[in-house]
Write a structure and sequence with these properties.
Layout: H1 2-23, H2 44-52, H3 54-77, E1 83-88, E2 95-96, H4 98-106, H5 113-122, E3 126-127, H6 131-140, E4 144-152, H7 156-165, E5 176-179, H8 186-193, E6 196-203, H9 222-227, E7 236-238, H10 259-266
Parallel strand pairs: 1-4, 1-6, 4-5, 6-7
Antiparallel strand pairs: 2-3
Helix pairs in contact: 2-3, 2-4, 3-6
């Protein structure tokens, strides 16, 4: 009797579900759940790695330790009568601006000069591990320090204040070659190299070293990197930066296809290798 009762209940429930599903109207496009893709969402993982991973900290120490070794070797080998110098980028090379990137990511914003100015004016960037110590090391070894950065000229005082507060040795303002009319750094580097023998370049972007890497469209500049392989770790020292850079430029075309879709199509999955 109990078995019969259970079978009856099961039949009633299944019939009710079937009737409900038959009577339900199909959802219209406007009623279907929408998966939103926001502008800054792609930065989440990169910013978390940059801010929280011991690996990022280790990479930074490693780069500046290597830079010290290269600096000493290059100064010893350099026979130029000119005074020796090192050229460094600032952002994501000496100063960590990841809170600005986090703000973009959390609030789903694309980069804007207004947002960057607000951040820069705060003077709250922190020093990358090993950066302050390297600048002191260079000066102690009678190597002049020059900063070639695409921060705007109008940001100079904020930059000086920020770096001073972090313990960077004070460098004369005229050694800061900031952006005026172009983001291309070649003319600024060449200007320094007229009077100094530059023995080392440090940056987070290939454009911090040479214009040899300008062509990103063909193979993302990988061919140029291969051609200059011997210079990395000896004349060029690169700091890892997964959040932004010249590497992004060839990722996007001028179509109306959302950037997140363009990024997704460029990734190589194991399915592509079958």
């Amino acid at each position: 009797m109990k078995l019969v009762h259970l079978l009856a209940v099961a039949t009633l429930v299944s019939g009710s579900i079937l009737l409900q599903s038959c009577c339900e109207k199909p959802k219209t496009e406007s009623e279907k759940p929408v998966v939103e893709n926001h502008a800054g969402d792609y930065l989440h993982q990169a910013v978390l790695w940059y801010q929280l991973s011991g690996e990022m900290q280790a990479c930074s120490y490693q780069a500046f330790n290597l830079a010290k070794t290269a600096l000493v070797a290059n100064v010893k080998a350099d026979k130029s009568p000119l005074k020796k110098a090192v050229i460094l980028d600032i952002d994501e090379t000496l100063l960590d601006n990841s809170p600005f990137m986090a703000e973009m990511s959390i609030n789903h914003n694309e980069f804007s000069p207004e947002l960057w100015e607000e951040w820069s004016k705060m003077e709250k960037a922190v020093a990358l591990p090993g950066a302050v110590d390297f600048i002191r090391f260079a000066l102690e070894n009678n190597v002049e320090v020059f900063y070639v950065s695409n921060r705007l000229d109008s940001e100079l005082q904020w930059t000086l204040n920020n770096m001073k507060a972090l313990g960077f040795p004070e460098i004369p303002a005229e050694r800061f070659y900031l952006k005026t009319t172009t983001s291309d750094k070649k003319m600024r580097r060449d200007s320094i190299m007229q009077n100094y023998s530059v023995v080392l370049f440090i940056g987070d972007n290939l454009a911090d070293f040479s214009n040899d890497f300008d062509d990103r469209k063909t193979d993302y500049a990988k061919g140029a990197v291969d051609a200059n392989a011997a210079l990395f770790g000896t004349r060029y020292v690169i700091i890892p930066n997964p959040t932004y850079g010249g590497w992004e430029k060839p990722l996007y075309d001028k179509s109306e296809t959302p950037k997140f879709e363009q990024r997704r199509k460029l990734m190589i999955s194991y399915e592509d290798l079958k």
